[in-house]
């Protein structure tokens, strides 16, 4: 517990969500909440002892749910840059696809073709093409 400006701060290992940190009553009443950069802060009030404050719940990035990808006609199947390197979708291990680059002049020790690092493997060839198109813009 930390006392600051007359407020009592309880760390997560000293308290539990839904349990009054002052009297231990189970069943706090929650009010409005505010989303901050790394937490959701929710007003609470204890019906037993009358204490109140904010509960801090940290938000942790846990992935994406993509619910919509715009309709899309590939602009090009193969792209070429100023150095005449070629960019295209190729299958990888198993039934996966990804944007690859075929280097015009591979450096020593560099494969002639290498996967584009920032692009993920995907099981959907059209999605891989979509990702390559977005990359190539
Ligand atoms: Zn209480």
Percentage of β-strand residues: 25-35%
The helix-strand sequence is EEEEEEEEEH
Strand order of the largest sheet: 6-7-8-9
Global structural class: mainly beta
Outline: elongated
Present as ligands are: zinc ion
Kindly state the mean pLDDT as a whole number?
Answer: 86
Q: How many domains comprise the coordinates?
A: 2
Roughly how many Å is the radius of gyration?
A: 26 Å
What is the percent of helical residues? under 10%
Structure characteristics:
9% helix, single chain, elongated, binds zinc ion, 3-stranded antiparallel beta sheet, mainly beta, 137 residues, 4-stranded antiparallel beta sheet
Notes on the structure:
The protein has 137 residues and is mostly beta strands. The protein has two domains: 2-58, no CATH class; 79-136, no CATH class. The protein has one helix at residues 125-136, and strands at residues 2-4, 7-9, 29-35, 39-45, 52-58, 79-80, 86-91, 97-102, 113-115. It is elongated, with a radius of gyration of 26 Å. The relative contact order is 0.11.
Quickly describe the structure.
By secondary structure, this protein is mainly beta. The chain contains one helix and nine strands. The site of zinc ion (ZN) has 8 residues, from loops.
